[in-house]
Design goal:
Blueprint lengths: L11 H15 L4 E6 L6 H14 L3 E6 L10 H14 L11 H4 L17 H15 L5 E6 L6 H11 L7 E7 L5 H11 L4 E4 L5 H12 L8 H11 L3 H14 L2 E3 L5 E3 L2 H4 L4 H10 L3 H13 L2 E3 H8 L3 H13 L3 E3 L6 E4 L2 H8 L4 H18 L7 H11 L3 H17 L3 H14 L5 H14 L3 H10 L10 H17 L3 H14 L18 H15 L11 H21 L3 H14 L5 H17 L3 H19 L3 H13 L2 H17 L3 H17 L3 H17 L3 H16 L5 H15 L3 H17 L12 H12 L4 H8 L1 H8 L7 H17 L3 H15 L4 H18 L4 H15 L2 H14 L15 H4 L5 H11 L5 H8 L3 H15 L4 H11 L4
Parallel strand pairs: 1-4, 1-5, 2-3, 3-4
Antiparallel strand pairs: 6-7, 8-10, 9-10
Helix pairs in contact: 1-2, 5-6, 6-7, 8-9, 8-10, 9-10, 13-14, 13-15, 13-16, 14-17, 17-18, 18-19, 19-20, 20-21, 21-22, 21-23, 22-23, 23-24, 23-25, 24-25, 25-26, 25-27, 26-27, 27-28, 28-29, 29-30, 29-31, 30-31, 31-32, 31-33, 32-33, 33-34, 33-35, 34-35, 35-36, 37-38, 37-40, 38-39, 39-40, 40-41, ...
C-alpha cells in the first residue's frame, strides 16, 4: 500500500481560498494565507497542493520550512526557500536588486562579497527580500511557501511579519503553515487576521467519509471497497487526523489485519488485536522489525530533528559513507525517511510526528544516553561546531541533562547570532544559556544577554537586567565590566534619542569607575583619562547635542561646545592609544560636527582621522559613515555631489541599506537646492516608504523635510505645510532639523510668495533657536540669506539708521564672510549678493558689477532657483542705486520663474521691469496652448484668440469683439499686430494663414 494518500481529501473550501489568492496574484495583488492546524492534520499537504496549482499557472514557487529546534541558524526557512528556487532557475541579475544583493547574501552564498561585512538589520534584510520576491513575480507572480512557522526562529518571524504588511501592491503571495497554541508565530497570524492583511484557515479533523477517502487512496482501491469496520476503527483511533489515519492503517496492513486482494477487494481481520493502542507503539513495533543498525540510525537521526543532513548524521554515527547510505536506503524503504531538496545531503522524516514518536520509544535514561553520545560525537568530529551544529549540540546537551555544557553551547550560539546581527535569536539563546547556567557562570551570560537586548531595541529590559548584575554573589561581575555595560547602554540610549535614560546609565557607570587618585584600569594613559573615561566623555558629548538635554537653552551654547570639543578630543586620543577603535570613531565623528565652527577644513580633518581608524581596524560601518560625512561637506562647500555619490556606491557594496538610504536622502535635498526638482521628487518617493518600513526614522524625517523644502522652493505653500505637518508628526519638531524647516523651507517659501516680512520673521526664529543651542546645520539662512535680507532691508528702512547699520553694514557683512559657514557655496552666493548691494550703494558700480559677474559664473548653474531669486532681490536695489544691468537680470529671472510656475516672483520681476521703463513680455494664460509655429512669431495669447476666430470663418470685428468681450477698436489693434508679425498684407491673407496654422479653439 501507499504510505500516504495520493489525493488531498476534505479541503475543498480551503483550496478555494488558495485559488482566489492565486487569481489575485495573477492580477499583481499579493497577500498571505495562513494555514493553522494540529500536527498531521494536513497543513503541508494543502500547502503542497497550492504550490502545484501555482506552478501550473507559471507562478514561481519558493519553499522553506521552520526548524524543530529553532536553533539551526537565523533565517533558515528563508534561506531554504531561496535555495529551492536558485538551484533550479538561478536568481535574477536585475539592476533593481543591486543595492540589496549584499543584504540578501546572508542567505544567498553566491552573492557574498569579501567587502560586504556589515551585519544588516532584519528589517533591512526583509526589505531586500521583498524587492527580490517582487522581481521574481514580475511576470506571472511569486509564491513563497513557508511551513511550520511555529518552529521558525525570531528573525524569520520578524521578516515574515514585515512581508505580510507590505504585499498588497506586489505580485507576491505567501502561504504559511503553523500549529495552533501560543507563541510569536500565532501572535503574528492573529494580528494579520485582525488587520485583514491575511486569510487565516484552520483545518479541522476529517469526518468518516474523509477518512474513508484517505484509506482508499493509501490502499489503491475505490472508496466503497473499504470496509465500514476499518473506517470506524481509523476514525475512532485516528480522530480524523490524516497522518494518524495513515500510520494506523500502515500498522494494520503490516500486522495482516487489513489485506488487499489482487482484484481490489479489501479484507479486514481482527482489528482490535491488529492495531496498536497508539502511534508510539506502532513505531516501536515497526522499529523492532528493522535491522538494529538501521534502528539505531533512525533514533540518532531523530535526535537531530525532523530534518537532518547526511554529513551531520555521519559525524554522529562515526560510520563510512557507504554504510550510512545503505542504512538510509533501508530506512527509506520502511517508510520512515525521504530525501529532501535538490542536493544529496538532505533527508527528512516522512512527517514531523514520526521523529517525535521515535524519540518516545526509548526510556528517558536511554534517551539521555543517546543524546549524550550524539553530542560528544559531534563535538569530537567538529570541534568548532560549524554551520548549524552549535545550536543542535546545545539541544542535545539539554536532553542529556548536562546543564553546564548546554549553557555554554547556547551562549556560543548566541554569540554567533549576535555577530550576524540576528539580535532576537541572540536574546533567546542567551536567555536559555542564563536559565541553564550554574550560579558562578551566570553573570557573564546575563551581561551578554543585556547587550543583546539593547541590540534588539529592548532597552527597558536591558536597563533592568544591568541593575541585577550589581548584586553580590558567586561569580558576580567586577565593577569595571559593569561600568562597561552601562556605558554601552548609554550609547544605545543616545542613538535612540533617550536622553534621560542615557544620563542614568552614565551616572551608573561613573559610580563604578575609579575616582581620581585611585588605581585605574590596566594600561591607563599618562594623562589620567582611562579608556572607560574616554567612552564616557564621548557619550556625554553626543548627549550634549540632543535637543532637550540639560544645558540647552542656556545663554552661552558656544562655551558648552568648546568644553565638549576639548574633552572629546582628549577622549579620541586616549581611545586610539587604548585600542578602542569604536570609541575613537565615535569621538572623531562628534569632533567633526563640533569642529565646523572652526572651519570645514578642520571638520574634514576629523573625518579623515575617523576614516583612518575605521580602515585600520576593519570597521566597515564607521568607514562608510566617514565617507558619507565627507561627501556632505564636499557638497556644501562646492555644490558637487560626486563624493557623496561615491559614498553611496560604497554603502551599497557593503550591504548597508540604512546607510544607503541616509545618503540618498541627502542627495535628494541636494537635488532640491540645485533645482533638479523632478529628480528630487523621484528620490523622495523612491525612499520614503522604504524608510518607514525599515523604521529608519531619522532619514524618514529628513525625506519629509526634503519634500517640504521641494514644495517651498516651488512656491507651493499648501504642499509645504502638508509635508511639514507629516514631518512634525514623525518627530521632527524641536529636533536638529528645526532651523532647516524654518529657514531653508518656510523662509524661502515666503520669498517665493514675495512676502519678505514673513521670511524675515522665520529667519529671526532660526536665529533665536541657534542662539540657544549648538549648531549642526549651516544652510538654515543665518549665514547667507539672512544677511542679504538685512542689507536689503537697511536700504529701504532708514528709520533707525544706527541700529540697521550695525546689523547690515560692512562690519556685519565682514563678520559673516569671515565665519566658517561662509565657505559653503549655498551661503556664499547670498553673501556675495549682499556685498554687491553695499558696493552699489557706496557708488562703486564697477566693483559691484564684478561681484555680480562672479556670482553668475560660479552659482547660477549650481543653484538656479536661489540664483534667480537673489538676482530679483538685488535688481531692485540696483535700480534704486543706479548700477549694474538689472533689466537683464530681471528678464532672466522672470523667464525662469514663469517657466517654473512661481507666479508671485515672476509678477514682481515684470513689475520692476515696468518701473524701469523696459518692455514687458505678456504672460497671459493660454500662452502654452499657442502652437510653436505661431508662438515663434511673437503672437500673444489674445492675438491668438483673434487669429483662431478668423480661421473659423469670416466674422466681422464687432462679432469677434462680442465673442472675446473686448471692443472692436481693440480687435483692430490685434489684427494690425498680427499682420505685422506674420508679414501678411491684408485680412484675407491673414485668414488663409490662420487656416493653415491653427484650428478653432
Amino acid at each position: 500500500m501507499r504510505v500516504t494518500s495520493p489525493v488531498t481529501v476534505g479541503r475543498s473550501g480551503e483550496l478555494t481560498v488558495v485559488d482566489e489568492a492565486l487569481a489575485r496574484l495573477r492580477a499583481s495583488r499579493g497577500g498571505t494565507v495562513f494555514v493553522l492546524g494540529e500536527a498531521g492534520i494536513g497543513k503541508s499537504r494543502l500547502a503542497r497542493e497550492g504550490a502545484d496549482r501555482a506552478a501550473a499557472l507559471g507562478v514561481r514557487v519558493l519553499r522553506g520550512r521552520g526548524s524543530a529546534t529553532g536553533l539551526t541558524g537565523p533565517l533558515r526557512p528563508l534561506a531554504e526557500a531561496l535555495a529551492s528556487y536558485s538551484r533550479v532557475g538561478g536568481l535574477p541579475a536585475d539592476p533593481e536588486l543591486e543595492p540589496y544583493r549584499p543584504a540578501l547574501a546572508r542567505v544567498v552564498p553566491e552573492w557574498r562579497r569579501a567587502e560586504a561585512a556589515y551585519p544588516e538589520t532584519m528589517v533591512e534584510f526583509a526589505e531586500a527580500l521583498l524587492r527580490l520576491l517582487a522581481v521574481l513575480g514580475r511576470e506571472h507572480g511569486c509564491l513563497l511557501v513557508l511551513e511550520d512557522l511555529h518552529e521558525a526562529d525570531h528573525e524569520t518571524l520578524a521578516v515574515v511579519d514585515y512581508l505580510v504588511g507590505n504585499l498588497a501592491a506586489l505580485p507576491v503571495l505567501i502561504v504559511a503553515t503553523s500549529r495552533p497554541g501560543s507563541g510569536a508565530a500565532l501572535d503574528l497570524v492573529g494580528e494579520a487576521g485582525r488587520g485583514r492583511t491575511a486569510d487565516v484557515l484552520t483545518l479541522r479533523p476529517l469526518d468518516a467519509p474523509g477518512v474513508r477517502a484517505v484509506a482508499a487512496g493509501c490502499l489503491g482501491v475505490e472508496e466503497d471497497r473499504v470496509p465500514a469496520a476499518v473506517v470506524d476503527r481509523l476514525t475512532g483511533d485516528g480522530g480524523g487526523n490524516p497522518y494518524l489515519v495513515e500510520e494506523l492503517l500502515a500498522a494494520m496492513v503490516e500486522a495482516g489485519a487489513v489485506r488487499v486482494a489482487p482484484d481490489g477487494v479489501v479484507a479486514a481481520g481482527d482489528l482490535a488485536t491488529g492495531v496498536p493502542g497508539s502511534v508510539v507503539q506502532s513505531h516501536a513495533q515497526r522499529l523492532g522489525r528493522l535491522d538494529p543498525v538501521v534502528g539505531h540510525l533512525l533514533l540518532t537521526a531523530a535526535c537531530l530533528g525532523p530534518r537532518f543532513s547526511v554529513a551531520t548524521l555521519r559525524m554522529a554515527l562515526g560510520v563510512s559513507e557507504q554504510h550510512l547510505f545503505a542504512r538510509l536506503r533501508a530506512a527509506a524503504r520502511a517508510g520512515f525517511v525521504v530525501p529532501v531538496g535538490q542536493g544529496a545531503d538532505g533527508y527528512a522524516f516522512r512527517h514531523r510526528l514520526t521523529a517525535e514518536a521515535l524519540l518516545a520509544v526509548p526510556t528517558p535514561p536511554e534517551h539521555a544516553a543517546l543524546a549524550r553520545r550524539t553530542a560528544t560525537a559531534l563535538e569530537n568530529a567538529d570541534p568548532l561546531l560549524t554551520e548549524d551544529r552549535c545550536g543542535l549540540v546545545a539541544e542535545l546537551w539539554t536532553a542529556a541533562g548536562e546543564r553546564g555544557r548546554a549553557s555554554a553551547a547556547y551562549a556560543e550560539a548566541g554569540r554567533r547570532a549576535e555577530a550576524g546581527g540576528a539580535w532576537a535569536s541572540a536574546v533567546a539563546l542567551f536567555e536559555r544559556a542564563a536559565e541553564l547556567a550554574p550560579a558562578p557562570d551566570r553573570p557573564p551570560v546575563v551581561e551578554r544577554l543585556a547587550q543583546a537586548l539593547a541590540g534588539a531595541g529592548e532597552l527597558e529590559r536591558a536597563f533592568e537586567l544591568a541593575e541585577t548584575l550589581g548584586m553580590a554573589g558567586p561569580g558576580a561581575l567586577d565593577a569595571g565590566r559593569r561600568a562597561d555595560l552601562h556605558l554601552r547602554l548609554a550609547w544605545d540610549a543616545v542613538l535612540a534619542e533617550r536622553g534621560a535614560d542615557a544620563r542614568r546609565q552614565l551616572a551608573a557607570a561613573r559610580a563604578l569607575m575609579p575616582r581620581a587618585g585611585e588605581p585605574g584600569e590596566p594600561g591607563e594613559p599618562d594623562d589620567g583619562m582611562s579608556g572607560q573615561g574616554a567612552a564616557l566623555a564621548v557619550v556625554e558629548g553626543h548627549l550634549a547635542l540632543l535637543p532637550g538635554s540639560p544645558g540647552h537653552g542656556t545663554p552661552d551654547p558656544a562655551t558648552r561646545t568648546e568644553e565638549a570639543e576639548r574633552t572629546t578630543r582628549r577622549a579620541a586620543e586616549v581611545a586610539e592609544r587604548a585600542s578602542l577603535p569604536v570609541v575613537a570613531c565615535q569621538a572623531w565623528h562628534l569632533l567633526a560636527l563640533l569642529g565646523r565652527e572652526r572651519g570645514f577644513d578642520h571638520a574634514d580633518a576629523c573625518l579623515e582621522r575617523m576614516l583612518a581608524v575605521a580602515e585600520r581596524h576593519s570597521l566597515p560601518l564607521w568607514r562608510v559613515g566617514a565617507l558619507v560625512r565627507l561627501g556632505v561637506n564636499a557638497f556644501m562647500r562646492t555644490g558637487s555631489s560626486a563624493r557623496l555619490e561615491a559614498a553611496r556606491r560604497t554603502a551599497r557594496a557593503l550591504g548597508a541599506i540604512v546607510l544607503t538610504q541616509d545618503t540618498e536622502g541627502m542627495l535628494a535635498m541636494h537635488a532640491v537646492l540645485r533645482g533638479e526638482y523632478e529628480e528630487a521628487r523621484e528620490a523622495v518617493d523612491r525612499s520614503l516608504g522604504a524608510t518607514a518600513r525599515l523604521h529608519n526614522l531619522s532619514t524618514h524625517r529628513y525625506l519629509l523635510l526634503t519634500s517640504a523644502t521641494l514644495a517651498a522652493h516651488r512656491g507651493n505653500r499648501a504642499a509645504m505645510d502638508q509635508e511639514l505637518e507629516r514631518f512634525h508628526r514623525a518627530g521632527g519638531a524641536d529636533s536638529f532639523l528645526t532651523p532647516v524647516a524654518l529657514g531653508l523651507c518656510r523662509a524661502f517659501c515666503a520669498l517665493m510668495e514675495e512676502d519678505r516680512p514673513a521670511a524675515t520673521a522665520e529667519l529671526a526664529a532660526v536665529a533665536a533657536w541657534e542662539a540657544a543651542q549648538p549648531q549642526v546645520f549651516y544652510l538654515s539662512g543665518s549665514h547667507g540669506l539672512g544677511p542679504l535680507l538685512d542689507v536689503l532691508a537697511d536700504r529701504t528702512d532708514r528709520t533707525d539708521r544706527t541700529d540697521r547699520t550695525d546689523r547690515a553694514g560692512w562690519a556685519a557683512l565682514r563678520e559673516h564672510t569671515g565665519a566658517p559657514a561662509a565657505e559653503l557655496a549655498w551661503n556664499q552666493q547670498f553673501l556675495l549678493l549682499a556685498e554687491a548691494v553695499l558696493l552699489g550703494r557706496d557708488g562703486r558700480a564697477g566693483e559691484a558689477a564684478a561681484v555680480l559677474a562672479t556670482v553668475r559664473d560660479t552659482c547660477s548653474a549650481l543653484f538656479p532657483a536661489a540664483h534667480h531669486l537673489g538676482m530679483r532681490l538685488v535688481a531692485e536695489a540696483a535700480l534704486d542705486d543706479g548700477w549694474g544691468d538689472p533689466v537683464v537680470w530681471l528678464r532672466a529671472a522672470e523667464e525662469y520663474f514663469h517657466t517654473a510656475g512661481v507666479t508671485a516672483v515672476a509678477g514682481a520681476c515684470r513689475a520692476l521691469l515696468r518701473r524701469s521703463g523696459a518692455g514687458v513680455r505678456q504672460r497671459r494664460a493660454g500662452r502654452d496652448r499657442i502652437p510653436a509655429a505661431v508662438r515663434e512669431l511673437g503672437v500673444t495669447p489674445r492675438e491668438y484668440e483673434v487669429l483662431a476666430l478668423l480661421a473659423s470663418g469670416r466674422p466681422s470685428n464687432p462679432e469677434i469683439a462680442r465673442r472675446l468681450s473686448i471692443s472692436p477698436r481693440t480687435v483692430e489693434k490685434h489684427i494690425a499686430g498680427l499682420v505685422r508679425k506674420t508679414g501678411r498684407t491684408d485680412r484675407s491673407a491673414l485668414r488663409a494663414l490662420a487656416g493653415l496654422l491653427i484650428r478653432e479653439p
